[in-house]
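Researcher: Here's the sequence for the chain we discussed earlier.
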Amino acid sequence: MTERPDLFAAAIPAVGALPNIPEFGTHKTEPGFRALLAMSTYHQIKDGVRYPAVLLTHGVNDLDWQAGHGVGDTKAQRQAERADVLAFLLWQFGMSR
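Model: Thanks. This is the structure I predict for it:
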């Protein structure tokens, strides 16, 4: 969504990859910091570029107060999230009714 924002009207990152020291490095070393900075989508955002609308569907435990990465979600939680995602996409695609 930051490398080719022109390709998308909307983006819904689900359970994004967060920094993991063994895999991605640490901010405590210069090479690690530079690697993390280079892969940070937040730090790649530039003024004047039209980015897609973004819906983040995570909370304290990645989805909801009482859930995790979808494991342990109730049927009602999964359905509510799906409804939110579909409503967001329809809105972004101009299908408000």
